[in-house]
Specification:
about 210 residues
Length: about 210
């Protein structure tokens, strides 16, 4: 039988240390700050347009963000959250990444083909369904950091207000939804910034 020789004085690595090193090698960075930042920036630009702070045609700039930052980057963050075993984060980031991708697809390819009378109802239903989803995600967020809970609370209200604005063809409600979306974006930016800054300095600096 062959014998395994070790260097003189070498010691076998303890099992706990080996396990810790394997886990460290397999661990990925926290994807939540990326997902929150992607959501925040895309939501901010769309909401500025909804609030009437920039021209309505400026919404075109949102579509590129919806495809690549709000959409693709969030979807990737969701996949990494699956890798981390975080069901809440995986569901949230994957879903809102898909939201932005579907929003871009609807705006590019499907909305122009709808009858004018049907377009508002289709958009209102789309936003209503996302409001329902966000409402139960808000309930789950109560078990997470307050900053995250605030994001989901504001987003729930934003979706319902924007949905109502489409069903009622109400410009004041659309503008209100825009301002609520801006508040949602800043809340998400804060949650992202807190995670990034705390990790960079190695200690908690911003309350979450």
């Amino acid at each position: 039988m062959a014998h395994v020789h070790t260097m003189p004085g070498a010691r076998a690595m303890p099992a706990a240390q080996r396990t810790a090193e394997v886990e460290a090698a397999a661990r990925v960075a926290d994807p939540a700050p990326l997902g929150l930042a992607a959501f925040a920036l895309t939501t901010f630009v769309l909401s500025v347009a909804n609030a009437g702070l920039i021209g309505a045609s400026s919404i075109q700039v949102v579509l590129g963000l919806a495809l690549f930052y709000g959409g693709l980057a969030q979807l990737l963050a969701g996949m990494w959250e699956f890798r981390n075993g975080n069901t809440f984060g995986a569901t949230a980031f994957s879903s809102y990444g898909a939201f932005w991708l579907s929003f871009a697809a609807f705006s590019f390819w499907f909305a122009p083909g709808l009858e004018a009378a049907d377009r508002a109802g289709a958009t209102g239903t789309f936003l209503l369904a996302w409001g329902i989803f966000t409402a139960y995600m808000w309930i789950a967020s109560l078990r997470h950091a307050p900053s995250v809970m605030i994001v989901f609370l504001l987003l729930t209200v934003t979706f319902f207000v924007l949905s109502a604005s489409d069903f009622a063809a109400s410009e004041p409600l659309r503008r209100l939804g825009g301002y609520l979306g801006i508040a949602t974006a800043f809340a998400a930016w804060y949650a992202s910034a807190a995670a990034v800054i705390d990790e960079a300095f190695g200690r908690p600096l911003l309350p979450r």
